[in-house]
Design goal:
The protein is mainly alpha-helical. Helices cover 64% and strands 4% of the residues. The protein is built from 13 helices and 3 strands, in the order ααααααααββααααβα. Strand 1 (155-158) and strand 2 (161-164) form a beta hairpin. Helix 7 (102-114) runs antiparallel to helix 8. The protein is globular, with a radius of gyration of 18 Å.
């Protein structure tokens, strides 16, 4: 027991250990998705989760990551590829990777949710990861490069404090708003029917390519100008909000399709 507590203390003591969107961001995505569930999906999710919600289970994969029994899930949170790829090149590389990534792990967990032979326990585990991974892949730095460890190696200063680019996009920008996850969800949940239909028709590989396209200029800019001042949040607030919204809308689309 003491060993586990020490491991947790070490893990959470590390600066920005890779929790995409942080607690507030992930829960906001879960809440947006909940707003767009159909009746069948809502009933099945309630059967699986009981009194828990998509928002509350959204951080489960990050909570279990420090434990040795779940170390195998660590690569499920990100994808690293080469820089400068076109969409066909990116998708080809994405689909050719054989070791675990956020992309192939998401497809595997969705398959488990669809499997009539899967146990309730297996489906609950899969559901929690589907909620989380869809959030992760909409955070641009979770589709970065191995060289920068998804922006973890790009050191920046934001509001006078030392951080790194990955951590800034995980939680720094969201923390800057001072909003709760319910307030953040209400702020971003404004998609119209056309947007919802288009975003839910897009394939997961497209979601990742969108993040990939965003991650490269973000990395270049931060490397060239690591002193990020008061202008950084207004510059990227709309991007951050759209990625949170798209994640929630697409999560709802996946769950509506799986359970209907």
């Amino acid at each position: 027991m003491l060993k586990k507590y020490c491991l947790l203390a070490l893990f959470f003591g590390l600066p920005f250990a890779g929790f995409a969107w942080g607690v507030v961001g992930h829960r906001a995505i879960g809440k947006v998705a909940d707003n767009h569930l159909n009746g069948k999906a809502r009933r099945e999710i309630t059967r699986l989760l009981g009194h828990e919600t998509l928002a509350l289970v959204s951080t489960y994969p990050d909570e279990i990551r420090p434990y040795p029994d779940f170390a195998y899930t660590s690569p499920w949170h990100y994808v690293n590829t080469a820089v400068g790829l076109t969409q066909p090149q990116y998708e080809s590389q994405l689909k050719s990777i054989t070791e675990p990534t956020a992309y192939n792990s998401l497809l595997t967990q969705i398959k488990t949710l669809r499997d009539p032979a899967a146990t309730r326990e297996q489906k609950v585990f899969a559901l929690k990861f589907v909620v989380h991974i869809i959030g992760d892949v909409h955070q641009p730095l979770h589709t970065g490069t191995a060289e920068t460890r998804g922006g973890n190696k790009i050191l920046v200063k934001f509001r006078g404090k030392d951080t790194n680019l990955h951590g800034l996009w995980d939680s720094g920008l969201i923390d800057y708003t001072g909003l709760t996850y319910l307030e953040l969800a209400a702020t971003v949940d404004h998609a119209d029917r056309t947007q919802i239909r288009q975003w839910q028709q897009d394939e997961p590989a497209t979601w990742l390519y969108e993040s990939y396209q965003l991650s490269q200029p973000l990395a270049v800019e931060a490397q060239q100008q690591p002193e990020l001042d008061y202008r950084y949040y207004p510059k990227y607030a709309a991007v951050m909000e759209q990625r949170l919204l798209q994640a929630g809308i697409r999560l709802a689309g996946v769950l509506n399709d799986v359970f209907s």
